[in-house]
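Following up on my earlier message about zinc ion. Here are the inputs again, as you asked, copied directly from the submission form:
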Amino acid sequence: MRVEPVYVLAVFIIATAFSLLFLRSKYISKLARSVAANVVPVGYCVAMYFFLWLFDQRFLVPFTNYSYSHKLFLRVNYPLPLVSLAILFLSNPGKITRSNHSAEVRRFEYDRILYTPFTECRTCLLTKPARSKHCSVCNACVAMQDHHCIWVNNCIGLRNYKYFILFLMINLYAFIYGFILIIFPLSSSLKLAWSQASSNANGNATKLWAAFSILIRLGNPEKTGACLLILCTTLAPLVAAFTIFHLMYVYAGITTNEADKWEDIKALIHENVLFMYKPSSILLLKRPDGTFNRKLTPDEESFISSHNSKLTVVTTEKELPNIYDNGFASNARLLLSPGEP
Ligand SMILES: [Zn+2]
Ligand SMILES: [Zn+2]
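Thanks, got it. Here's what our run produced:
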């Protein structure tokens, strides 16, 4: 049976959309969701290797005149996506257990903005260390939790963030390199299809579709090349944007989880309900009935009276320091080598 790349591409797009919707649905049982969560990494590997096989057997061998050593180099690269996925899939994101809990509590100070001390995880029944978050899929609190990655069905946290960046970069490398390897041998066919489409169709979207239709009728290598080109052109910018986002988070010294928390803080500032004793970092939240969300601790009261602190409304997030940002180099060093606190 001959596999049509166009159908493979369509099945891949539909399966990805279906998996994302399925995993996000509230109406799916926990067991079904956990089975589906493990199917996604397997599906990613199957799809990736199927596209690599298509590229190798239907495009690289019959259509290109790349040298033997270049083809050998490419084939040595083929296992990289699988290796990076396996490393991330099997890695420990920094799960907090009873044995490492006290050390993890010492790792980061509580900033009393995003994280307050003495908050207990209702599932693990342990005090939450600053920057940690409980993941219901992994069923554990994770140190410096960033997010739960559905592509590898594992949390991304303090101890495996470096492998996550590696995984993103290898995927980005695969899509950009794949794009370059396909576009050059296909350039004369692309020009031919585009000139024919330009004379027959109006409007850029119609021309693109007409050119694609002409291209896939030229022959099997052109058909495979066109489908793989669509895949690389769509996925490379998405992965690039995601990688840049994460590098910006490392630069800013925040996690994805903290970025969400800062958005909530900005909304409170916008509503003029966040108050702060200055000088200090003691924050209080004003309820709709005019009362504050909590009582001051004796330590806080003595600090306020000794420093003559005044309660003022917070007007900008710049008044709230991010104590976890120690500069890009230090932030990156922490993720590369978390060590023991
Ligand atoms: Zn927990
Ligand atoms: Zn998780």
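One observation from looking it over: The first strand starts at residue 133 and ends at 135. Hope that helps, and feel free to reply on this thread.
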